[in-house]
Amino acid sequence: MLTESGSDEQPTRRAKIMVVDDDADLRQALSLRLRANHFDTINVCDGYSAIAMAQKEKPHLIILDLGLPAGDGFSVLKNLQQYPALAAIPVIVLTARDPEGNERRTLESGAVAFFQKPADNEELLGVIRASLQAGWGWGGALPS
Amino acid sequence: MEPEPARVLLIEDNPGDADLVRLRLVEGKSDVQVNCVPRLADALACLAVETPTLVLLDLNLPDSHGEETFRRIMQKAPNVPVVILSGQDDKALAIKAVHLGVQDFLIKDDVTSKQLERALRYAIERQGLLHALEITRQQQIEFKNRFLSHVSHELRTPLTCIYQYVTLLLDGLDGPLAPNQTDHLKSVLKSVNQLQAMIRDLLEATRADSGKLRVEPRCIDIRELIQQAVAMMRPTAAENHVSLEAGLDQTIPLVYADPDRALEVFINLIDNAIRFTPPEGAVTVKASMVETDPSAVYLSVSDNGCGIPQASLPRVFERLYQDPNAVDGNRTGLGLGLYIAKEIVTLHGGRMWVASEAGSGCTFSFTLPLYSLAKLLLPVITHQGRLRKDIVLVRVELTPLSKALRGSWKEVCQRCLERLRQCIYVDKDLVLPPMETNGAGEILFVVASTDMTKVGIMMDRIHDQLGALPKLKASGTIRVTAEAIPVSPADNPRTLEQQVWGVADYVTAVIQQGFESKQNFTEKENHTNAN
Which of B30, B166, B354, B359 could serve as B117's disulfide partner, Cβ 3.0–4.6 Å? Predict the structure, then answer.
């Protein structure tokens, strides 16, 4: 389930994370942060492209905003579940919306975690690593 | 179109007076239907079935007198105009009635048909206007709350962007920074955090205003919660050169409160205390039991800062109240923290108050209810007026595989609790409300009124059922243990209630022990993996 890389060994394969958010600046900032932590990133700005890109790129994890054009976060979650190849990808919801009501609904729709913006960087990275380690779709080594 | 006839509910026990009023109403040629009842109870029954246009009542009825009469009527039918028709000209009572919302106070002997008809007509109009005004007021509050909620959410998006780029720069991801650049960015980050706290307070206050603030009480060890709050606030205290200590009574039983909300209250009060305490000052958090009130725990946060002037004391819990004496004068926040804290405590059924003497600091105190296990246990562990012989406590422990999976873990535990309720052996068995453990793990308890053999079957069932939950499989482990609870002998002279209290005390002690062992919890412990 989980393969730890040796402490000094550079991982040979990098986990690919898709960031779905309609705010271009935020997408860019998140991507920079993720790349600095040795993840590959794909940026997507709406619900429709999220599904199309997920099918094409098969990311190991998705960070998803709820308020999106062309299919909101909930419809993205629902659509992902309909493709066997995508259903297992862990999705972390990152939204400006209230946890009240939305948290339970996103988790019931298949997301693995809910964060309200602005989320603490270290907490978010911690959950990203844990989700990848928990065996959903990522068999490679993780950078520490 | 002809207006509908007014339906008057007349409450009058004297048949002569009743007829007279009826006659006067008809004489006044107003288009009215009169329904006359002699007692308050009859009137309340009528109001439950149908809402009249107006209630006309005598105050002294066979089953009710004076103020009580119209209070009960107005409680039952808050939007119906009420006019009193009294035999006595009691001016003080009349004014009081009008202040409480009665539309008119007429004296039987003074009123002519015309006057009565006119008084009733105007009473109906006035009540209608009041009602319309109330609806407008409600709509305005609703609009204000929606507006605030919308604005707060919209503010979060740009704030997130600022946070992301500032932390990128601060973490050196865009290249090395000069020392003063780092300092400046830290100031930006501090302001971002303050802005975030303000948005959170704004949303919380809006929720409190519209009655949407909710608490989910659980059984918690309040001492652990206070230690957590103190640990969280220690850096802030150190930054301000203020000492922060907790003095905790070791005998405090379990408290029934929402851990997240209660933590919010402590953080709020401690943060507040630090802000009003000059360097070298001290902030102390206390928890204790008070002999005169055994159903609550008494909590307090005190400081030895500048104190609050007597004149301001009644206002500190008001929204937007800001004390001019803050040590860091221009960073006082929105003035919503204490208001929210008090709302949260009130929602728990507790009280919050403040005491202060100018110059010698102040103390914010509040109460939270204790958890009454005995009440929950009574139907489970008694049978035909006696204590059941076999009582077993089943302990279910859920441990997440990774501490970071916080978001989904809460949901996993919720599912487990729901599933656990389906596993109990007889419907009398009791799944206790979740126990806060403050660790990432969750401990759930079932009190079963059966023997160990049957509980063995129940434990297997719990294990199979919870283990089969896909979410738990992916993220955690489960361990189920059971313990028989000694029951006092049947010939014990104590009352049944005392015996139930005894069992409850014992169960509480076992649970508290569980908390303590949890604190010493090590990863080496052997768990049965759900996989």
Answer: B30
